[in-house]
Amino acid sequence: MSNPRHLAILKSLATKSDSKIVFLVMDGIGGIRTTTHGTTELEAASTPNLDRLAQRASLGRIIPALRGMTVGSGPGHLALFGYDPVAEENEIGRGVLEAVGVDYALKPHEVAARGNFATLDAAGLISDRRAGRIGSDEGTRVCAKMQAAVAEPIDGVSVKVLPVKEYRFCVVFDGPDLEGAFLDTDPQVTGKAPLPVRPSVEGPHTERTRKVIEAAIAKMSAAIKDEPKANGFSLRGFAKDPGIETLQQRWGMRCGAIATHPLYRGVARLVGMDILKTGTEIADEFETLKQHWNEYDFFFLHVKKTDSYGEDGNRRGKISIIEETDRHLAWLGEKLNDVIVVTGDHCTPPPMRGHSFHPVPTMIAAKTSDVGGNLRFCERTCVTGSLGLFPSMELMQLALGHAGKLQKFGA
Amino acid sequence: MSNPRHLAILKSLATKSDSKIVFLVMDGIGGIRTTTHGTTELEAASTPNLDRLAQRASLGRIIPALRGMTVGSGPGHLALFGYDPVAEENEIGRGVLEAVGVDYALKPHEVAARGNFATLDAAGLISDRRAGRIGSDEGTRVCAKMQAAVAEPIDGVSVKVLPVKEYRFCVVFDGPDLEGAFLDTDPQVTGKAPLPVRPSVEGPHTERTRKVIEAAIAKMSAAIKDEPKANGFSLRGFAKDPGIETLQQRWGMRCGAIATHPLYRGVARLVGMDILKTGTEIADEFETLKQHWNEYDFFFLHVKKTDSYGEDGNRRGKISIIEETDRHLAWLGEKLNDVIVVTGDHCTPPPMRGHSFHPVPTMIAAKTSDVGGNLRFCERTCVTGSLGLFPSMELMQLALGHAGKLQKFGA
């Protein structure tokens, strides 16, 4: 939803209904048919429960952002939740994504940046921008040394060092009146020293914030200078929470998110969802859904591994995750009074070993669906489905419509 | 691509890839099925190579400009090249189209206008707005008399008179500080004299430019006053090159254009393509493509006669051109690593004897295509194709996506 007037009108029409809405997001779900494989993973999988759902659903396809554009998980999910993923006001800085991606509940006044450990030579120049790709254990250990060095607040600003993975970490600055607009300190090439902190946009508190960040960098750098590999670092993607209007504010829905991976919990948190504690398996996620069923109007349940196997080019693996998800769908599939949406944030075709720009197969199963005689949920049936081909960011309003959560416009 | 922010984001994602992109534009390719002919020309033609391409392609249909709107070749091609054909900044004045349409390489500072010969009566009033539809030979001869009359620059501005066809010609003014915004001198009706030159928008050099144009008109008029038919003229569509951002600037692609007719070369030149010398036949065009294959990232190959026969209402003729094009497609069809787009600038259904507003059948054959089990390339298969129905101006970005020439947006 990118047109402010359209959004305002839709919000004015928002109303309560007895139907819950569930977004089952299978990451990277869509695939492509090639001359080698005439079926996609969804087509090749045995999916009795998805197919039963399709038989009472409307089918279609969604375009994550712009035609031909491949999106990452951040924009892909923002769009699913009804936000224009390419609008400036919905831009989520990389630092913010990294922080929420390790389950850090970033507060609106905090500034976050991604960190990369690097190896510096005797002259202080970067000789390896990834510090020899150190492992997560070593990264966590070095992060602890940096955290100890900034245990005391700097000019009233406390600094948190969060290990992410391998040579990656995240730094959060927590204090009053902080600006978030600074350029990367990563020179992008070896043979140069990390850059000083420079503002990208000047604000009233830029200079003070810059000094705090520089002071923190100096302390953290000193603490790790004798490390064999991770004896330096650069910071990138400085940003604050963009302060996106929440789903609760927009539609008056209580929203719960279930995801095994922190990045997806993070994006859900940024749009105001409660994060529901769950386990590491798809089974755990569906169990969490059952447990919290009565507490929320909207659920986002994220299945990660369809994407992971797609990225690996593992067609069989992706099929197996689709089938595993399908097995857990029986209970949800019988919620005839509710709106069950099955979709993805983007396609991840195994032959492409990465995200792609292709439209994402999508279905909406509801009492109000236009059931078109579909026998299966797959690319083939979605291409000719009654929902047609439309932007992902309009899926939420369509789900609200199916759930009776939008009143009539005009007499 | 009409949203400036969207375009800026896409441009920021542009990257190189090994895949070339070829736009094979069959002018007016699409047709309609009627109660008389249950098949379109594409459907009735025997097209083994197009069909083989379709079997490894994604199919769909494109809308040249606005739904229900019929476009000319200028806007139709601009849209194919990724420019919003109805945006003010992409408006190509008729004078400019006329100049580039006779292969004149219009420079940014020059002003061009279309000319129509007219017959004036003894009182200097127009009695025939097309000068008795004189032939091209006579038009060329009279143009030469006018050119001789303005052989000397007027106030530093040199004037070029370019014959176009029959009673049509083009005038180009070449000098420093010229304004291009003037109203037509054509009174649109007989019984009136050609109008004086009046500005449509005032600029710093309007008055001087106006005087130069008036002086040129006076000299050219005097030179032909004794002609039996073409003893006068009017000028229309004064304009300068709109200075459209080139494809090279947008996407970093080296672009080559192959077309037998000057208008199409002209539009291609306005968006920055190199014009490749070719012959008059379709065979020549494909030969030119082969010769220059290694020199460019993007090719535009234009087939004219599908449109010409459509305009004539000649169904058999249009079918024969489709079949002729198909025969030359074998070599291109085997470029499995590249992106082959087959489309048109608009439809020209023979029963309508003119351009039409119908969506244009389109296919994208690439390694990244979602091959949907299509057996043929025609209206029937394109209606249900996986690309769906979308604006022509989004075809370029979709082709870039298929070619791996757009990086992922966001993490």
Based on the model shown, name its key terms.
homodimer; 411 residues; alpha/beta; 8-stranded mixed β-sheet; 5-stranded antiparallel β-sheet; 15 helices; 32% helix
Can you describe what's shown?
The structure is a homodimer of 411-residue chains. Chain A is an alpha/beta fold and 411 residues long. Chain A contains 15 helices and 13 strands. In chain A, strands 9-8-10-1-11-12-2-13 form an eight-stranded mixed β-sheet, sandwiched between helices. Chain A binds chain B through residues 32-35, 38, 61, 65-76, 85-88, 92, 94, 97, 349, 351-352, 354-359, 379-380, 383-384, 388-389, and chain B through 5-6, 9-10, 13, 55-56, 367-373, 384-386, 388-390, 394, 397-402, 406-411.
What strand order characterises the main sheet of chain A? 9-8-10-1-11-12-2-13
Whole-number mean pLDDT of chain A = 96
Shape of chain A: globular
Fraction of residues in helix of chain A:
25-40%
CA distance, first residue to last residue of chain A: 23 Å
Largest sheet of chain A: 8 strands, mixed
Total number of beta strands of chain A:
13
Q: Class by helix and strand content of chain A?
A: alpha/beta
